[in-house]
Amino acid sequence: KAGVTQTPRYLIKTRGQQVTLSCSPISGHRSVSWYQQTPGQGLQFLFEYFSETQRNKGNFPGRFSGRQFSNSRSEMNVSTLELGDSALYLCASSLGASGHIETQYFGPGTRLLVL
Amino acid sequence: GQQLNQSPQSMFIQEGEDVSMNCTSSSIFNTWLWYKQDPGEGPVLLIALYKAGELTSNGRLTAQFGITRKDSFLNISASIPSDVGIYFCAGQLPPSGTYKYIFGTGTRLKVLA
Questions:
Q1: Could you tell me how many CB contacts below 8 A there are between chain A and chain B?
Q2: Residue A48 and residue B60: Cα distance in Å, rounded?
Q3: Touching check for B41 and chain A: CB below 8 Å?
């Protein structure tokens, strides 16, 4: 079974631009979560999508948004990029079943550098 | 954002030694996961724990879900150079309209051959 895939793996943008990152979950997984990882803040939860709906949201500004498609693939968008948005963006997928006990599997990440 | 207290932050050990690290919190968790992350890559799941008191092994790795549900431990026996990396714990909060995970700050492990 293929793992979580993320594209692109690396990205360089300039301040003020916007960026869209993509994540394809493990086949059969319906929940996709996004995280931002930086050396100073560690892994911070951005949001989670399940069945095309945002189910949870972290404490990030509205410049960070996401969506999920009917095939469970997800995209996240960051508008008006700031230098501090430079980070490794990780996507994690899980079954998303209603039993609440979930195991998350991560993709390799997209490393974003904002200049 | 919320984070778990993970210790130690970093450790240097000799090849062949055993390693222990732990995560603690003031919150109760339903699930504990342990991940290893190599530079520039995403975290890879090592062990998942679903029940208080549960002790689970994966090769040289052993992890336990604390009885109080507020902590978890990971042990690595007979370390080898490829154990180098950052180890993260993650706890899933009980459902209260949210299913999100909280992550530890990471333990950076360096193994000296």
A1: 66
A2: 33
A3: yes
A83: left (phi over 0), alpha (psi -120 to 50) or beta: alpha
The pLDDT tens digits for A44-95 are: 889 999 999 998 888 899 999 999 999 999 999 999 999 999 999 999 998 8
Give the three-class secondary structure for B60.
coil
d(CA B8, CA A110): 28
Q: Do A106 and B45 touch (CB under 8 A)?
A: yes
What is the 8-class DSSP label of residue B104? B
Q: Which residues of A touch B31 (CB under 8 A)?
A: 101-103
Q: What tens digit of pLDDT does each residue of B30-70 get?
A: 889 999 999 888 999 999 998 999 999 999 999 999 999 99
